[in-house]
Amino acid sequence: MKNNNRLSALYLGIYLILVLSLVSCGVSKSVRHIPDISRYSLETPKVDQINDSTFSFNRNYLTKNKQQLWELYIKGNPLQLGYNNGALAQGLMQRQEEIFFSKVEGFVPSKFKQKLLRGFLKWYNRKMYLNVREDYQAELYGLSQYSSDKYNFIAPKYLRNLYLHGAHDIGHALQDLAMVGCSSLAVWNENTEDGDLLIGRNFDFYVGEDFAENKLIEFVEPENGIPYMSVSWPGMIGVVSGMNKEGITVTINAGKSKIPLTAKTPISFVTREILQYAKNIDEAIAIARKRKVFVSESILVGSAHDKKAVIIEVSPKNFGVYKVENTSQLVCTNHFQSDAYKEDKRNQKQILESHSEYRYEKLQELLQENKKLNPEKMAAILRDRSGLKHEKIGYGNEKALNQLLAHHAVIFSPEKKRVWVSSNPYQLGEFVCYDLNEIFSGKNIAESLKARTELNIARDPFADSEDFEDYEKYKLMSTEINKAADSDDILLTDDFISYYQSLNPDFWLVYYLSGKYYFSKKEYAKAKTAFEQALTKEITTVPDRENVEKYLKKTLKKLQ
Predict the structure, then answer these.
(1) Which of 24-38, 301-315, 456-470, 498-512 has the lowest mean pLDDT?
(2) Whose CA is closest to 376, among 531, 193, 222?
(3) Residue closest to 371 by CA, chosen among 416, 327, 417
(4) If you write DSSP's letter for every residue of 406-434 in order, what string do you get?
């Protein structure tokens, strides 16, 4: 009861702070802000629906390929880009918005707390618009005209779209969420079969299966700057993985972040700017250096012009560039490597306690085993589910390169201007090949999108295996076990628990969740066995191991 009173007092305190904050000049200005769109000409799109999954307007085009990936081609000035994107992908965009906000409601079911959260976001994001390029704001404004009215209570459409582009950064900054644990690598010269630069990345961003269902590959031909492609989701104009027609690539990997006092430039807008305006590594570094970010992030930049890759490491108060010497391979996970961060305590803690260093070592191990890579071998690395020395560490373990939760995986060949994008499930489906020289050639877009399908990389056989079926069952049953552990009314049989453990027997988490269930039901002897089994497995992080040890200690006390 005492704790509830403290929480009520805390929420009341936050509420009062927010009320005071919301009447401040900065918040009211940002809430009312509308970008200047008067300088841009606009033709309101009249979309022609060709079939249930193909739409067009002038030379703008949206279709779904046979691998179930959506392909969007848009061109025009910033405002026109936004309108074309929104008009063609309106149904997909509104669906994505619904998925995202339903997740938020699931995390924060209380209406009062939701109101606090909305107030906090308005206050926290009060300076974001000052740090976003005006042309991107105009594009967002055009896109937002096709957003749903359903969520206007959260914020006006334009503002809501701006907030959504900072959602990755805000979650990362405020809660240090482990929603993103990405791996990427670049090889060139003697490390590839043809000597060309080759880059691979897993984007391990997980907000649920439904969020990842509609993957969108965007091909954008802006009025100013360089045409580019990116892989993300409907309603996203920033870039998390992409390549431009000059052969510049960008991929982002989250680092350990200090909590900033206000939102600034979302990282996906920094990478978008690099793609749109950089032709080489020096230009990419100059763009990243001038933007104020509010999270810590590694940006792996590949360059056809330079025939190599570097990592730009940005954070609110520091900046570094990591270049390799006397080698033609570059590996990036979720910690910084440049001299600028050598003494950074958060980065040191990240290396010691997280799964980042383990995946870094795994990439090094696989590169030792595969001296010369091609796109197929790169896909095999991105799909690797084993631990160090090929140890079985359980499916879904974040120490694996393939954590079986990736939103997408991408392979870039910058000098050939080719890109391969994975299809569902995760990075296991067929990798679809696109040729930017073809797509941005001015030919019929419906034909040029299909130009390189003969180079596709085959679906991973694991996706059709019994082990994969068991993994999918394990995920569903994990939800049931968590519910049962939190409820006095739900009881599970020992056979249920035993079957659950058999679905993913090498993964520490199945035993930890089993132990938590038994502990909640006061079956301490069974809980003890489960926690002890968990400790014999490859546990993901130091805090995770400490948590299992803490539960085992509590269980042993109960048994005394």
Answers:
(1) 24-38
(2) 193
(3) 327
(4) -SEEEEEETTTTEEEE--SSTTTSPBEEE
